[in-house]
Amino acid sequence: MRAWQIQRHAEPADAIARVEMDAPQPGPAELRIQVEAAALGLPDVFMCRGTYAFDPQLPFVPGQEVVGVVTAAGQGSATPVGARVMGVTAFFKGHGGLADEALALDASVYPAPAAMAATEAAGFVIPYHTAQLALKTRGGLRGGETLLVLGAAGGSGSAAVALGKALGARVIAVAGGPEKRAVCEGLGADLVIDHRDGDWAEAVRDATGVHGADLIFDPVGGDAFESALDCIASEGRLLAVGYASGVWRDAPTRLLVGKNASVVGVFVGAYGKPFLEQVHAELLDHWRAGRIRSLASRVVEFDQVVGALGEIADRRATGKLVVRVGDSPFLEDG
After folding, report:
1. What is the pLDDT of residues 273-288, one digit of tens each?
2. pLDDT digits (tens, 9 = 90+) for 62-107
3. What are phi and psi of 67, to 5 degrees?
4. What's the gap between Cα 52 and its chain centre?
5. Which residue intervals of the chain are DSSP H helices?
6. What is the pTM of this model?
7. Are 78 and 60 in contact (CB under 8 A)?
């Protein structure tokens, strides 16, 4: 089968190569999936560089998110052969989605409706599950509250903007540059602030009448985390979702006490499959009602993976870049 394999740690152009290899065999509670499409993300770049938290042993096939049809099921798997699923691959074992066939834990996949395009389903689970758990479960977002989304044109940020609107929040998005601002506006953000224009935390305070943001979705970390604390509302919650900047930061306890504010961690992996199935069902209800939509910003062909990873590495990509891997019998965008 065709596959893209990270063979050494470097920038994507020097790290990854196209190879031919045997299809992987599923172990207990594992599935083999014939891949229709795979979504790319910043973790794939980090894996090329060898800086990701879950870094498989070289050489390995990256690609965290896929949609496809189950072609083989290991002992103890509940998902039947022939089911169409979307979810997270066993990339941490070296069998990710940038291949004709990938492995996934049975606990990490969810139903993919026939009416959902392969290019949409490929990048649905990680961003939207993260956004739902962050905003609703961990953040307790209430209708009418002000939600501030950092990195709002990225994968998880885009999902947070769309879902925040679906949940009735006033959404302020922070992004950089005209193209990324346009993405946020298209997702329904009430206000988009370009962080390149100056002190965006001050702009948030001005836009909220000095009240600040009730809930802050932060997949960036680093300096952005510290700036977010400058515009958090009294009794506000800052959701620590990720560290696209490459570093985590700590919040000063004195500031949190003074504002009755909280920093709340968000980790999808801490939840079991039964609860996540409920999360997935709620999200599909939003999707069927048209309240949330595809995050796929562009579809690239299998041979274009290196260039697409380069765009993500250079922070030029918006939304989700999706790789078309196989011929899908299901609906396609456009």
Report:
1. 999 999 999 999 999 9
2. 999 999 999 999 999 999 999 999 999 999 999 999 999 999 999 9
3. -130, 145
4. 15
5. 12-15, 42-49, 118-121, 125-132, 155-166, 178-186, 200-207, 222-229, 253-259, 273-288, 305-313
6. 0.92
7. no
